[in-house]
Amino acid sequence: ITKKPMVVEVPVANVAAAEDPERESAALDVDMAMVQPGPGSIQTPNQPLTALRFGGGCSYIEGNRQDMSKPPWTAEFWVVPGRPGGGSRLAGSNHGGLLLTTGPASGRPGCVGWSSGTLQYAFDFQAPRGKVTHLAYVATSNPTPALSLYANGSLVGAIPVIASCPMSTVGDPKYAFRGVLLGARCWRVALQASQVAASTAGGPMARISQRPEDCTVDWDLQDGHGCNVHDRSGGSPASLSGATVTASEIGRASCRERV
Question: Quick one: which of 126, 133, 124 has its CA closest to 14?
């Protein structure tokens, strides 16, 4: 059987990076035998899948949504990181960003973090290159303000800040991350630890088990086409700039994708 390029939709996979770690585009091999659709997935094995490739620099989804200026909120991303770059944004606005990798200003470069203006805050976690990782930022105000990070359903830690959620773009016009995005969601509530774990298990295409009206953005990236991204939460379609759609399918023995 001829092997075709594809990207998988589930939150956990074993992926080996290319031999040359300095290449702008590194080939990734995914062992599909170790990947299964998450519980609650509405995708069948033979349906086509799509994902978005971000190449750093100017690569983003223009959401045109206002920032959530204060807690509570949650932002989730299913991402396969490519070659790291300091200060690379998963999401951003004029006020700050959700960082896949922090820069030297954080004091801990290369970690997942959050920024406000010129300030950067780092969590004690580096998203592994070439592995599908579910990241959930959860901002709370009680009993004290904090921004927590969950990675693949497990709590990494919390930063004592009153955090806003940037909603203007996923990626960034200048400082986008490098890698593949499989899905993104934003909530106007702080998800509980059990709810984050359920998202990790279900993946980006699972039906939402929480109150749908609390979800402000739900991009599973399966219904968009051309330069648009469909929002399952009911928002208007978002436009792509720089980021490219990657057509794919599930059900083969292995896959190769470039990020």
Answer: 133
